[in-house]
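Table S2 (continued). Query chain:
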Amino acid sequence: CPDTVCANCPRHPSCMKNPQTSTCNSEVAVAPWDPLGAFWRLFSFAPFATLTIVTALTCGTVWTGWLETDVLRHHGYVELALFILEVTLLVCSYLTAILLGPGFVPHGWEPSTEELLSLNGDTKKHPLDMPIPLDDRLQRCGRCKSLKPPRAHHCSSCGRCVLWMDHHCPWTNTCIGHSNLQAFFLFVHYVPVACLHSFLIQSEVPASIALMLFRHQHRKFWKYIRRVHTLVTLILWFASLVITLLVGSLAWDMHWSISGNITMVEELIVDKAESRRCRLKQESFAFPYDLGSDRNWELIMGKHWLTWFCPARAQCNGFWPPLRKGSHPFDLSMEQLAQKAYKLSASFIVPVKKEFAGIGNQNCCCCGYFWCRLLCQFGCGAACSGPLCGEPHLVVQPGDQVLASHREAHWFFGRVDTAAEGTEGWFPRDCADVDNIQKCQVPHQRQMQGEWRTSRGLIIKVSSILVSVEETAAIYILKEEGGFTKLLGCNLEHCDGQTARWSNGDEWHRQPDTEKGKHSLELEQEPKKNV
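Corresponding output:
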């Protein structure tokens, strides 16, 4: 790394912390390494328990295969070296996954000016003749208070946004993401290989027991079964079988994730995208980072054969990964924004008329005190259908407006309108003013439904608060700010159901064939009066 701080240098720590020079379009850009976080991850209970299990299985296998003389077959030193090599690679991959960490998004991250200039696409296919604002292209984390790269997701256990988050692994005490994905992939493959080898070696003990029973050598059987070595070996033999099956199934899933260059979180996003687009009859969603199985393997595991077997640092850009042909860097993040907007459009605004401060410990609702207070305050119905253990309560005051996304017979789930995302919880229906529940809408939403033709000749389809352009897969969102409907930062100045005029000078005219069904989607989503 050169001594001078340069926007084109992704490996320099100060480049990563500066919001204006945080990442670049280079081949490799990784999140900065946190040595203090690595120390706390390593010296915790999960690594201690994991390494203890590995040590026990290793010692038991060596004892049975090479130190115990009463065995069915002889195990040579070549097999011993092979087994030690498997365990060594397993431990190295495990420690690398812990020490590297998943790659957290730096606090205050945002794309640099150079990045935005290089990533801005052609505005000819946008619904308005305007560049897309940053908040319409990237998600903003309500907990970290910063923007998220397209493949980043917030982990509630780590309390940070993680690049390429796959899942939170309790055995590594951290998430699996961009920086440690390759090391974790090797770890979950070396575990079933080493455990299967251990299982085969220790299988000689149950095989000897079965042979004694078959030959009716009962005296020898009882003497053999009472030995400490026999009992310990049987326990480790069963443990190695269970670990092989459990971790082997995870390794199989990870193999398909690597071949498709898609994480577990992104699989859920793609499934939701296909379901939503099929329901709204929009263009199908193409995952933008699937480059083909061979290219995906090289991207994550590296091009050199040595990195296919030994753990190493990430081999690709974690902020702006390579894209498949025809995709845009913001396709995935804009799809997630569209999913949140679609969920919001199906929500309703619930006024609060009675205070609810939460009852008992929200992390454990199994105590009798909790149910007694719930029964006394809100009746038998709320007590019998209350939230499960660990589900949060929402503290509300009279006059609050709650955006409710789910409802049960006696409970609502949502967040206070002025609160940030991630603060959702349950509150009783008796606290809500059910007679004044309203649908969550933007101004002129009903008049905007249907197909429109822009002044530039584009065909626009509006479904709920989602806007799409014909022959494109991108989704744009209608927002409400200051009492106005906004799209791409422009205000809707006039809409009478036939003509829509925007503050940038663009005009939309309704397509004549969509007049009959322009309110169909809105009518389908109207809440029942007796909620």
